[in-house]
């Protein structure tokens, strides 16, 4: 098994910013962590803490019954439609880029248009 190093970047090392906590966490997830992953020798970047944006879906129970669907059917359909996966790494001279297949919802409207 190879040796590895583990580094932790504390928020106190970053410039003082005044933004809502959810916005900062989203930026770290979507931008800063991706920057770290593209550095040579970095295998993973894990984000922890902060508030994670959440969208609650509240199904109409009467409509579910009328359609013959259960709450589990809705949950399964939502999970299948909201997927993001690793696409691999692109190796070029002097550069290595990680790729992702985007499928996660960004807005409430995206959920409404899902084929659930």
UniProtKB/TrEMBL annotation:
Which InterPro entries does the UniProt entry name for this protein? AcrB_DN_DC_subdom (IPR027463), Acrflvin-R (IPR001036)
Report one GO cellular component. Answer: plasma membrane
Q: What parts of the sequence cross the membrane? A: none
Q: Which Pfam families match?
A: ACR_tran (PF00873)
Any one Gene Ontology MF annotation carried by this entry is: xenobiotic transmembrane transporter activity
> What PANTHER family does UniProt report for this protein, alphabetically?
PTHR32063, SWARMING MOTILITY PROTEIN SWRC (PTHR32063:SF0)
The name this protein goes by in its record = Acriflavin resistance protein
Specify the species: Candidatus Thiomargarita nelsonii
Organism lineage reads as:
Bacteria, Pseudomonadati, Pseudomonadota, Gammaproteobacteria, Thiotrichales
